Every structure is written in structure tokens, then in C-alpha cells.
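Subject: design request, 402 residues
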């Protein structure tokens, strides 16, 4: 496959990813992204030169950790364009953990129902099932239109906890009308928790300035270490009744009671935190901010350009059904004459790493659509035109030979 004159030359390399082997193509960024060198350096620097606890010591190393962690919180809030006066950033294990902590800590008796959608992946789907069971309230699963919009008449929003993805996990479709949805739910006395695991990485503009009550996402899908983040309103955080309570969350303890700290983020941060990972995530956000100057194009343009080439190339191959209607950084296909897991194995042997299966969207893909294992190609900042060329060159004889 030839490259047009208007497309960047891969000879410039992969800024930030010089350590990656040129013999391998990694197309599983929807799971986790490679980490650019500045992130690796930040984590290594913590272990080599700091290694201190944050939030509880007075010596210099601990104070440096506190400053770097606070900077990471501020960068995360700025990345999604929300006010630090109204919102706080808490760090958790991952998106699933953040969603679970929020839902399990909501005040009992405050909400009448939990609402989600048919296309949600397991982080949302399973946590809403468990939360509705614990609270003894109904759980409503909405259908979606072909454009990803939620099909609802509005009655569902009354005193509801609405948990919805901003970008799905299978075909990368951005949920339209999120701002209007949030406004409608708020008018009906409900709250909205946004699963931004994919959107934070691939559609950050869709989140900026969003008036959601909480936004949950993962640093490891945004070129940071394995870590989760919850950006939530101070009002919501301070209303929580934490299901896990430990050091770092309390200002006083008596024989049979305790007093929680006034800082809203502490409601979701029991015990010692992942200081190196938090600092590394701060470095990742900073690195993302400089992507355009290093690459000559924004990350969104970079991903869309490569996704379009890959999508069109896959569409031209025989015995392959594309699941999504248009190019996105997350492209899933259904092989017609070979099991998806086998095709992924064949690609792995050719040095191309992709994901196969149902991508934690079991209800939507298996129960509702009756689809077997899919193959997912997900693009990231480290990918180049050469990666797309090599993938299509390997795929063409595989599919033609079936």
C-alpha cells in the first residue's frame, strides 16, 4: 500500500517512543497504551530519588511528592476543562474500581433507580447490576439508536443515577447529546456518572467542560501508568458514605467513630496511594499537551488519519465484516471464515498485536447481537503509517487464503 505525498514520512520516528521495536506493531491501545519516555522517567525518578509517602510526612522528599501529586490532580482537572473550585480529582486502581466505589458509596435512599445502556462494557454493566441489587431499586437498560444516542422518553431520569459511556469500547462511537442528557437528568433530580475510559484517550474534546457529576477514566489508556481517575463534583464526593475507610481519609478517630477529612478527593482514596503512578500520570498529561509540537499534528488528527487508512484497507479485504459504520481509533471486525481468536493469533505470529473476543461488552455482543469473537484494532499516539501498511500487508494474504 503506497503513501500519498501529503502523509508524514515515518522516517521521523516515534517521538517519545524511541525504545519501541520497529519489528512489532502494537494495536491494542484501547486496553492500555505504551508509555512515552517522559512517563517512564517520572516513575523511575520517584523510585530512585524520592520514594517517600505523600500526604503524611514533613520531610523534604514527602513534600516533593505532595507537590507532584497536587500537580497531577490539577492537570487532570484542566485536561477535562472543569473548575477546580467545583470539582476534585481522586485516584483509584482503574475505571472499574472508581465506578464501583462511587456507586457503592452513594447515600442510601437518595435515588429511585439506576439507568444505563445496552452497549456498556462490564465496568458499567456489572457495577450497575450490583449497585441496584444493594440499594433495592430498579435498574433500567436503555437501547441506543444507530448514532449511539440514548432512546428514552425522559421519565427514566427522575431521581436517577445515570451511568453512561462517552465512547463505547467496541467501535469507538462517541455518545451524542451528552450535554443535553446531563441537563435533563439534573432537571429531574438525578445525577450522571460518565464512563470515559475510551473517550479520555480518543475523544477528550467530548469531555471538556462537561457538567457531569462524575467522570471516570484510566491513566493507562492515556499513556500513563496503571491507574484510575475520578473527577467528580465536590458536592457528590462529600455526600458519599465510603465503603472502605482507612488512613489518609480521617482527621480524628475515637473508640467507636471517626471524622472524615474535609478534602473531597479523600472519600475515594483509602490508605497509601500509588504515588509513582500518580506522578507518572501527571507527566503523561504534560506529554500529551506537547503532542502537536512534536508530531506536527494534533493527536485527534493523527489518530483519525491512521484510522481512516486502516478502516478503508480492512473494508477492501474479503471475508471480513466491519462492525462500526465509520473510521474511529477503535475498529472491530468479524472474520467470516476463521475464529477471531485464531486470526489474532496469526497476526501475533506476524508481529502485530491486536485484541480478540468481546472486549468486556458481553451482553451487547454475545447476548444481544449473537456475535462470535471479534478482532479489535485500536490506534494510539505511537502508531505510524508504516504500522498501518504492515498490518494491511499481513492481513491481505491471510484473508484471501480463507
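Subject: RE: design request

Done. Sequence follows.
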Amino acid at each position: 500500500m503506497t503513501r500519498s505525498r501529503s502523509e508524514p514520512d515515518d522516517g521521523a520516528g516515534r517521538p517519545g517512543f524511541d525504545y519501541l521495536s520497529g519489528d512489532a506493531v502494537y494495536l491494542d491501545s484501547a486496553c492500555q497504551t505504551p508509555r512515552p519516555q517522559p512517563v517512564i522517567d517520572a516513575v523511575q525518578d520517584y523510585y530512585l530519588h524520592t520514594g517517600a509517602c505523600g500526604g503524611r510526612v514533613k520531610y523534604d522528599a514527602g513534600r516533593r511528592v505532595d507537590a507532584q501529586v497536587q500537580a497531577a490532580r490539577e492537570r487532570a482537572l484542566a485536561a477535562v476543562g472543569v473548575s477546580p473550585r467545583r470539582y476534585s480529582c481522586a485516584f483509584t486502581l482503574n475505571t472499574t474500581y472508581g465506578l464501583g466505589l462511587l456507586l457503592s458509596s452513594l447515600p442510601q435512599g437518595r435515588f429511585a433507580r439506576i439507568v444505563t445502556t445496552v452497549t456498556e462494557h462490564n465496568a458499567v454493566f456489572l457495577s450497575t447490576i450490583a449497585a441496584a441489587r444493594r440499594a433495592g431499586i430498579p435498574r433500567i437498560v436503555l437501547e441506543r439508536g444507530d448514532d449511539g444516542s440514548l432512546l428514552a422518553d425522559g421519565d427514566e431520569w427522575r431521581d436517577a443515577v445515570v451511568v453512561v459511556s462517552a465512547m463505547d469500547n467496541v467501535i469507538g462511537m462517541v455518545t451524542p447529546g451528552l450535554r443535553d442528557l446531563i441537563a435533563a437528568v439534573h432537571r429531574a433530580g438525578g445525577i450522571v456518572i460518565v464512563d470515559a475510559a475510551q473517550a479520555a484517550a480518543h475523544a477528550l474534546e467530548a469531555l471538556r467542560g462537561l457538567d457531569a457529576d462524575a467522570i471516570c477514566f484510566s491513566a493507562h489508556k492515556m499513556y500513563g501508568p496503571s491507574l484510575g481517575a475520578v473527577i467528580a463534583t465536590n458536592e457528590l464526593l462529600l455526600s458519599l458514605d465510603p465503603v472502605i475507610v482507612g488512613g489518609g481519609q480521617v482527621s480524628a478517630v475515637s473508640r467507636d467513630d471517626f471524622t472524615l477529612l474535609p478534602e473531597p478527593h479523600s472519600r475515594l482514596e483509602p490508605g497509601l496511594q500509588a504515588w509513582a503512578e500518580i506522578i507518572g500520570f501527571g507527566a503523561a498529561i504534560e506529554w500529551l499537551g506537547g503532542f502537536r509540537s512534536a508530531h506536527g499534528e494534533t493527536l485527534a488528527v493523527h489518530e483519525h488519519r491512521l484510522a481512516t487508512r486502516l478502516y478503508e484497507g480492512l473494508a477492501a479485504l474479503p471475508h471480513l465484516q466491519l462492525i462500526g459504520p465509520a473510521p474511529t481509533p477503535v475498529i472491530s471486525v468479524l472474520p467470516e471464515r476463521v475464529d477471531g481468536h485464531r486470526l489474532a493469533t496469526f497476526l501475533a505470529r506476524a508481529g502485530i498485536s491486536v485484541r480478540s473476543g468481546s472486549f468486556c461488552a458481553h451482553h451487547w455482543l454475545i447476548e444481544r447481537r449473537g456475535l462470535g469473537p471479534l478482532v479489535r484494532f485500536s490506534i494510539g499516539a505511537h502508531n505510524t503509517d508504516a504500522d498501518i501498511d504492515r498490518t494491511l500487508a499481513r492481513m491481505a494474504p491471510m484473508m484471501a487464503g480463507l
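The longest strand covers residues 87-92.
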